[in-house]
Design goal:
This is ABC-type polysaccharide/polyol phosphate export permease. It contains nine helices and four strands; from the N terminus they run ββββααααααααα. Helices cover 61% and strands 4% of the residues.
């Protein structure tokens, strides 16, 4: 058993005056920098929220220090996908298969949720784990790292979506959304489902990093079609619906279009399925992350 060293307070002098005392041990080593825990649930909650906020800002600015350039990068992905799908629908002459209404709004309803889902998945899966150097700081933990990574992805996606909608509304044609709150809720639900799936992959990644990276790539590529953003769910026969209704993003996109178009009423999807799907994967991810955090070692990645 290691010998416990008692701590006592030694007053420090600054310019001849007695300053704030420092905690020191019996051999005279004083602790210059320490983390004092706040007692009580409300102060502890305030500390955690403050840490999440600062970590979120760090994640947003980590890839690009210029906020405008980071927003332009995120907007470029949406613009490229909108242009590609608009050209494909026009060249193949299948614009009539879309919902009656604004065709660009129909494309945006699928692309924005698709990007939000993938951004949440990639952000959580790439969050800092228990062996990260950031975890050496006393108040930092994996829950804060995962939460901040997910919120940073949501912030960037919301900002890019609102900017593109504003540009389209002002420069091209005014848009009208009957239920914007419901459509935004589906946007957040798509992000939440992506974060839940990413949490499960994050818990499994230290055990088999190569396989999990491949699974993540395959899932995101399959979602290009399985998400249902290129077609209307109500037009699918029952045999085709069975190929897509496992996907929470399929339900979120179809329900979002029901909130965005007056003459569209989704009947092949539901709101409850992606909610329960995301909650179930969130619980599995939390359990897996707990087990991984207790067993993960920095030496696991030494051979890679």
């Amino acid at each position: 058993m290691p010998q416990q060293v008692a701590l006592f307070m030694v007053p420090r002098e600054r310019n001849g005056k007695i300053g704030v005392p420092l905690p020191c041990n019996r051999i005279g080593r004083c602790i210059m920098f320490g983390h004092s825990r706040r007692t009580g649930s409300l102060p502890a909650m305030a500390t955690t929220l403050e840490l999440i906020y600062h970590s979120t800002v760090r994640h947003v600015r980590k890839k690009n220090g210029n906020a405008v350039l980071a927003l332009m990068t995120s907007m470029t992905k949406g613009i490229v996908m909108l242009g590609a799908f608009y050209a494909m629908f026009t060249l193949l002459d299948i614009r009539g298969a879309a919902i009656r209404g604004d065709f660009m709004l129909y494309l945006m309803s699928g692309i924005f949720l698709f990007l939000s889902h993938n951004a949440g998945l990639a952000a959580v899966m790439g969050a800092e784990g228990p062996t990260s150097p950031m975890m050496k700081h006393a108040p930092m933990n994996t829950a804060i790292a995962i939460s901040s990574a997910a919120l940073a992805a949501l912030y960037v996606q919301i900002l890019a979506m609102l900017t593109l909608l504003f540009i389209y509304h002002v420069a091209f044609t005014p848009i009208y959304i009957p239920n914007p709150a419901g459509a935004f809720a589906m946007f957040v639900l798509a992000w939440f489902a992506g974060c839940s799936i990413g949490l499960v992959l994050l818990a499994l990644k230290p055990w088999m990093p190569g396989t999990i990276s491949l699974v993540s790539t395959i899932y995101q590529r399959v979602n290009m079609i399985a998400s249902g953003k290129m077609f209307v769910a109500n037009t699918l026969p029952a045999s085709m619906v069975a190929l897509f209704d496992w996907n929470p993003l399929f339900h979120a996109i179809d329900q979002a279009r029901g909130f965005m178009f007056l003459n569209y009423f989704p009947r092949n999807s539901s709101i409850s399925y992606p909610i329960w799907f995301a909650i179930a994967f969130l619980m599995l991810g939390l359990l897996g992350e707990f087990v991984t955090r207790k067993n993960a070692s920095l030496s696991w990645g030494a051979r890679r």
